[in-house]
Design brief:
This protein has six helices and no strands. Helices cover 66% and strands 0% of the residues. By secondary structure, the protein is mostly helical. The relative contact order is 0.12. α1 packs across α4, α2 packs across α3 and α2 (42-64) runs antiparallel to α4. The radius of gyration is 28 Å and the shape is elongated.
Length: 181
């Protein structure tokens, strides 16, 4: 257990305040993930993938019912098969009936394309928004610093003021260009 040092009378320790300005060009992981969810179709694709997984597992389960030698005999086994088949690790039980094999092939193709498509599309969609992101990051940084004004030093307040002033001038210039054209 850590103990606190007692302050010695007559001695003052120099207190340095940590710099609280967030850097606009270095988003945190949480901000990145939030941005992926808000700015892309990530959640919709995940929901679609989950619904397709349930549908294909049900179809495999129904197609394998009553087939001699079928290893997929419960819906739980069909759900496991759906995940194992999508993982492409080769650990999924092979369906026995021709209909179940066709359903399985369709799931593997469609599920894999959708799964990897989700990842590629989400990351690409995030990085294809460079025009919107810097402005949003500047605004987020200013909002964050305005919420924590009492923690900022005089230099930090001056930097915040210059940034806000430059942003206002930039926006006014954009409005003038729009009106002139």
């Amino acid at each position: 257990m850590a103990t606190r040092r007692k302050k010695m009378p007559g001695k003052r320790r120099a207190q340095r305040r940590p710099v609280r300005l967030r850097v606009a060009h270095a988003p945190r992981l949480g901000g990145y993930l939030r941005s992926i969810i808000e700015e892309t179709y990530f959640l919709r694709f995940i929901l679609l993938l989950g619904l397709l997984w349930l549908a294909f597992a049900a179809a495999i389960f129904i197609a394998e019912q009553g087939v001699d030698g079928a290893r997929i005999q419960t819906f739980g086994q069909a759900l496991y098969w759906g995940v194992a088949a999508l993982s492409t690790a080769g650990i999924a039980d092979t369906p026995v009936s021709g209909a179940a094999q066709a359903i399985g092939a369709a799931w593997i193709l469609l599920g894999s394309v959708l799964f990897f498509g989700i990842i590629v599309a989400s990351i690409t969609g995030y990085f294809m928004r460079p025009v919107q992101r810097p402005a949003r990051q500047i605004i987020d940084t200013i909002e964050y610093n305005l919420e924590h004004l009492e923690d900022l030093s005089v230099d930090e307040l001056e930097l915040l003021k210059r940034t806000a002033d430059n942003l206002i001038l930039h926006m006014e210039g954009l409005k003038q260009r729009e009106q002139g054209s």
